[in-house]
Every structure is written in C-alpha cells, then in structure tokens.
Amino acid sequence: MRKVALDLGAKKTSYCEVSGGQVVGRATVGSMETLRPLLGPEQPAATVAIEACREAWYVHDLLTGWGNQVVLVDTTRSRQLGIGQHGRKTDRIDAEVLARAVERGGIPVAHLLSPHRRELRRQLGVRRALVETRANLVTTMRGLAREQGDKLPSCTTASFAGAVRKAAKGALLTLLEPLLKTLDVLEPQLSAVEEELGKLCSKEPVIAQLCTAPGVGAIVAASFVSVVDDAKRFRRAHQVESYIGLVPSENTTGGRRRVGAISKKGNSYLRALLVQGAWAVLCKSSKDDPLRRWGEAIAERRGKRIAVIAIARRLVGILWAMWRANSVYEPAALGQKVARGLRNSAQNLEFRAEQLARAARKVSCQRLSQEVTSPAS
User: Fold this and answer.
1) Which of 89, 184, 311, 332 has the fewest CB within 10 Å, making it most exposed?
2) DSSP assignment letter at 109
3) Which of 209, 251, 215, 245 minimizes the C-alpha distance to 227?
4) b/e map of 24-48 (b: 16 or more CB within 10 Å)?
5) Strands 46-51 and 69-73
6) Which strand (E) or helix (H) includes residue 326?
C-alpha cells in the first residue's frame, strides 16, 4: 500500500507521500474534500498517518470510507519519530517525518474512540462550556456588587438570577441586568444538554455501576467512560492512572531516582473532576468508608492536598476494576485491602522506629566507650 501522512491544521493540511525512502508527492490543501484526487476511492489504497487531535475522528472516518487504512499517532510520543528535532517544525516537515515513519514502521498508535463515546464526550464538552460560562457570570456579578459595597445573597446557581433581582436595587440592578438576561438564556440550554446527557448515560449501564463508588456522580462516571472508552485495553490499574496523569513524574538518570509532582498528562477535565470527587470522599463520604479512612491516614502523615491526589489516583483504579469486573462498589472488599495496607504501614513504621532506637543506643554506647578509654587530661 502507499505510505502517506497528513499534518492537520486549522486552516490547511499538508500531504506527503513516500516510496522507497524518497518523497514522491506533496500537497497543501484547505479542506479534506480537496484530497479526493489523492486519497479518494478511485485511487490506490494508502496507509495514512495522522496525529491524534479533535478533527482526527472526522478525518479517520472520511479516509476509511474512501478505502484507506488510517493510523492514529500518539502525540505524547511523537518526538520518538523525529518530529521537532533540531528545532525545525513546520507542517511540511512534520508530514514528511510521519510519512517516513509509516514506511519504516514502529509508530506509537493512539486509541480511537468508539462513535457512541465520541458523542458522549461532545455533550460533556458542551455542558462544561455552559457550566463554566455560568460560573464566570455569577463570579462577575458578585464582584461588581462588592465594588459598590453590596453583597449578593448566597443561593444555588439555578435560583441565582431570581435571588439577585429581589435583593439588588437601583443602579446595581440596572448594571447587572444584561448579565442576568444572559443567565436566563443559559439555564434552559444547560437543562436541555443535561437531559440529552441523561439519555446517553442511560444507554451505558457501566455509568450507573461506577456511580456506586463514593465521590462519583453521573458527570464523573460519564467523563471516565468517555475517556477510557474500553477498560480491557489496560492491563493494570497503574496504566489507567498514568493515562489520566495522576502518577508522579519521574526522572531516573545516572543511578538516581527523582520523583516529582503528578505528570498531569491526559485529559485535564477528567483529572479535575476526579480530584473534586476525591475531596468529596475525604470530607463528605461516610466515616466508615474504607477509602475515606485510607485517605485520612495519608492526610495525617502528609497533609490533605497530597491525600486528595492519592484518593483520586486510587479512585481511578477502583473505577477501572469495577468496570472490568462488571461489578458495583464493595466497601468490604476494599476495606480488607486498606486494612492490609495500613497494617503493613504500621509495621513498617514500627520497624523503622525500632531500628532508629537501636542505632541511637549503638551511638550512645560508642560515645560512652570513647569517654571511658580516652586519656585523662
């Protein structure tokens, strides 16, 4: 098959084809439809490499429909292919580097979301935009009120507009009215999107199962499903935690191991939702819940912020395990694991204290021996 790569851009797309290590075709187009003379169904089939991005879903479906084989490249490992080396990075160069990588093989392939999970992620993206817009409006109005020495009432966001219209008077109400009208329009749209999300979630039984875990609601569960897509493509929980960016970054060179903050790779929105869920576990879930007890033990040693990240990371593993096993949250089973972990931790601390005490006694004996055997002054 022909070996081709596309570098997708907002305004233009670069096309490069290689054969026998030589570039045999180049083109720059403004839309995918203009690639039909090169990759259309009338042309010989090609293996086409594209970097994973939002429009990659559409491009994949279009090129596959034309009879081509599409390879989705993992952008987090694209430097392994030579992209951006020697400080040279253009659409034309990137397309050529990808095309040569297709010919020689060994491309790090990214996962392609299934169609129904794509729709779930789209609706979640619309809801996120509406929620963030609403939050910005509310924050702006509260700030404008404080500038004039007033304070808007505390209430739910759904009843915020009505509460403000009752509380604000005169010039302040006139100032806030354009923002309140925007909020009036936004609320029904948000309700419609959440209703559509509810329909999509009802078609995904796994979302209801994941919601049985503490700190996990429909939005967190739906986001987790839309990002992971298929639990069985991961072999271990640690791989999922790394995929979402909740594992510590590491730099081990020269025999020294340096571990830093979490890597923050992967979907940032899902990561933020999981951290919010972890705060709910630590502060609002049942005091008897083993996940909360485990987090509280970490908080005592290292503080709440680190404990929350640890809970979020463990929550990922729990959700993945529930999905793979087609089960609901079982506190008793988790409690046994937590108990073993806390027992081992206590044993390690006890062993450490015992060894330090033994070392202190040894040092004390050495000092005493030196004092006894030292010559008199």
Assistant:
1) 332
2) B
3) 245
4) eeeeebeebeebeebbeeeeeebbb
5) parallel
6) none
**Amino acid at the residue 238:** H
What gap in Å lies between CA 17 and CA 317, rounded to an integer? 42
pTM: 0.81
Q: Do 95 and 16 belong together in one domain?
A: yes
Structure-derived torsion over alpha carbons of residues 295, 298, 303, 307, reported in degrees to the nearest 10? -40
Strands (E), 21-160: 22-29, 46-51, 69-73
DSSP conformational letter for 261: E
Range of the domain at 156: 115-203
State yes or no: pLDDT of 377 exceeds 50: no
Read off the pLDDT of residues 155-204 as tens digits, 9 standing for 90 and up: 888 889 999 999 888 899 999 999 999 999 999 999 999 999 999 999 99
**What is the pairing mode between strands 2-8 and 46-51?**
parallel
278, 309 in Cβ contact below 8 A?
yes
| Closest C-alpha among 223, 321, 239, 347 to residue 274 | 223
- Is the Cβ–Cβ distance between 71 and 50 less than 8 Å? yes
Domain count, the chain: 3
pLDDT tens track for 18-55: 999 899 999 999 988 899 999 999 999 999 999 888 78
The structure tokens listed for 133 are 């817009």
Q: Higher-confidence residue: 162 or 75?
A: 162
Each residue's pLDDT tens digit, 332-354: 777 666 656 555 555 565 655 66
Query: Do 133 and 231 belong to one domain?
Result: no
Domain for residue 367, yes or no? no
Examine residue 127 and state whether it is found in any structural domain, yes or no. yes
Torsion, CA 277, CA 281, CA 283, CA 287, rounded to 10: 170
Q: CB count, 10 Å around CB of 91?
A: 18
Alpha carbon of 123 to those of 115, 137, 151, 318: distances in Å? 13, 21, 35, 25
Q: Which residues contact 198 (CB under 8 A, 6 or more apart)?
A: 218
| CA pair distance 326, 205, nearest whole angstrom | 10
In the structure encoding, which two tokens stand for residue 336, read together?
């046994």
Beta strand ranges found along 32-77 (DSSP E): 46-51, 69-73
